[in-house]
Records
---
Amino acid sequence: MAVQGNQIRIGETEVKPGSQASIALPVAKLYTREEVAMPVQVINGKRPGPRLFVSAAIHGDELNGVEIIRRLLRLPALKNLQGTLIAIPIVNVHGLVNRSRYLPDRRDLNRSFPGSEKSSLAGRMANLFLNEVVAKCTHGIDLHTGALHRSNLPQIRANLDDAQTLELAQAFGTPILLNANLRDGSLRQAAAECGIPMLLYEAGEALRFDEFSIRAGVQGILNVMRHLGMLTKGRSHRPPAEPRIAQGSTWVRAPESGILRVLVPLGREVHKGDVLAMVSCPYGNEEHEVRAHKSGVIIGRSHLPLVHEGEALFNIALFNGDRPEDASESVSDFQQQLQTAPLFEEEIFT
Ligand SMILES: [Zn+2]
C-alpha cells in the first residue's frame, strides 16, 4: 500500500504531521447507556514513512500487551519518529471490563473479522477497528497471550510463506517463529486481504503480567520499527539472533485425569519419549507419566495442577531439519539479554 504524506484521520480526529492525539473511538454503550470507547493513541512523525498499528487485548483477558504498549509509548525515541505509530492498548473494551476473552455476546472478536456495521456486537467492533485503524496502516503487530492458566513462550505467529511478513518476523527477534495458517475471521486474515503484513505476538498468560514477555514485546516492536526505518538504529543496537522457524506445533495431552506435576520449563528442548510431567491420583498411589510424542521445543504449557484426561498440557514447536537444541540455546541467550537490556533499567519488577 502506498503511503501518501502522513496526515491521518481516525474517527473525527485529524492528526497532523509532527503531532500526537488520544482518540476515543465510540463502541456499543453499556446497558446503562454509558458511553464506551476504544482508546487509540496516534503519534505522527514530522517525516512521512510507514504506518504501524500495534494492538492489544483483542481477547479482553490478555493483558501483557496493554503493558507493552504503555511502556512503548513512554519511550523518548518516539520523538524522532518517521512515519506514524497507531497504538490501541485495548481493542475489546467490553471483554477487558468483564475480564473475559470474549465479548458480552459470547463471540470471539478475533473470529469476527471483517464484520459489518449491521452484524453482531463482535462484528461491529471488528469492522470499526478494521476500517478506522487497520485499513489506514501499512504494517501491524497484534499482541496476545496464552489462555487462562496457560503460558506461552514469547513467539511470533505469522504467515512466514509471505516474504515481507517473514522479514518483519525475523526483525522482531523472538528466538522462535511459528509458521501459522490464517484462520477464518481473524484479524490476520482481514489484514492479509488488505495487503498489510502483520505479526501476531504470543507471550505469557491471560490475566497476568509476565515481565519477560513484556520486555520481549517492547524490544520486538522497537526492532520492527528500526527495521522499517521508523526509528534510527542506535550505536548500542544489536540485531537479533537468527530465529528458528517452526513449521507447526503439537499438543501433548493428559493421559489420565488427576493432579499434575510439571517437570520441564517453557523453552526447553524435548525429545520423543521424554517425561514432561506426572499425573497422580488423589490417594497418591497411582502415577502416570506424560511423555512427549514428538521432538521439539516447549512453547506453551498449562499452569493448572488439576487436569482431566485429554486436556492440552504442553505445546511443542516442531522443526524441520533444525536441531531443537539450537532453538533452546537461543531461548536462554534471549532471556539473558533481556534481563540486562539497559532499555528496562527503570522498570520495577515483582
Ligand atoms: Zn489471544
---
Amino acid sequence: MASMAQWVWPAVRALRLWGPGGERAWARRPRIAGRRTPVPFSAGVSSIFGSGGSSEKEKLFLQDIAELIQARACQRVVVMVGAGISTPSGIPDFRSPGTGFYSSFQHADVPYPEAIFELSFFLHNPRPFCTWAKEMYPGNYRPNIIHYFLRLLHDKGLLLRLYTQNIDGLERVSGIPGSKLVEAHGSFASATCTVCRRASPMEDFWAAVMGDRVPSCAVCTGVVKPDVVFFGEALPQRFLLHVVDFPTADLLLILGTSLQVEPFASLSEAVRSSVPRVFMNQEAVGPLSWRPRSRDVLQLGDLVDSVERLVELLGWSEELKDLVQRETGKLSGQDR
Ligand SMILES: [Zn+2]
C-alpha cells in the first residue's frame, strides 16, 4: 500500500489546481469560528476551553464536540470515511481478516484477491472484476444511519467536504451532493473505455455486467472500466481539494477507517493543530494512535453506537429518524 503515495503525488504535481470551471467555494479565505476573536474557538464555548491559548491543552470529550457544533464554533467540518461506515449496510470490509472481501473472494482465474483491482490483471482478464461489480449493482445496498448522519450535517450547512474511500456510492444515494464529495478511490458513477478513453454510458456498463458479459466500448470495442481507482492509477482530480479543505477545516471527523491506505491516511495530519479530530472506529489504528494530538477524541467500539451517541448529544435524534424514514421511503418508491 505504501506505493500508492508514489503514484499519486507525481499526478498531483502535474495537475493545474486552479483550472477553469472548478468549484470556487474553497477559494474563500479561511473563516475563524466566532469571527470577532482571534482564538479558534470562542463565544459560547468558553466554558470548555477557558480563555487564552493554554486552554487548547484541555482534553476534549464527545460531549464537548457536540457543544462546539451546537454553538456553531465548528461549522467547516471535514469528514473522512472508510469501509466501516458501509459494513452496517451489508458491504463487507475489504481487509477484515476472515470476513473481509480479500479473505473470502475466490475465483478460479484470480491468483490473489487484490489482483481484481490491478489494472494489468483487469486488462488481461476483466471477468473476475465484473463478477464482483455485479454485487455492487446500484440498489443492492442501502445507506445506513451513518450516511444519513452525514447528510444531516450537510443539510445543516456544516459539511465542508466528505472524503470517502468507499466506492459503493452510498454517500450519493443518501442525498449528499457530488460537490460536497471527494470519492478518493473513484466510483461507479461513470465509466471509461480502457482503449480510446471515451466515456461510456453507465446503463451499457450495467447491462453488460448484469448479463455476465464484459462491458465493451460502442466505438472501438475496447473493454470499459468504471471510474473506480485501481492499484496503479492516479486518484481523481477532485482529491486535490484537500489542499484547501484541510487547512480551513475547524473539525475533522474520521469514521470507520483504520487509515491504513496512503495518501488518505496522511490527510488526518493536514488539519491545523488546534482543530479537534474525532476518531470513531471499531479499533484504534493509524496516525491517531501513533501520533496523537491533545485535542483528539477517540470513540472506539461499534460505529453505529458511536454515531448514535453523538447524534443524541447533538439533540438531532428525532430529526435523523425523520430523515431516514423520508429517504428510505423514496428509495423503496424507486424499487417499485
Ligand atoms: Zn473505446
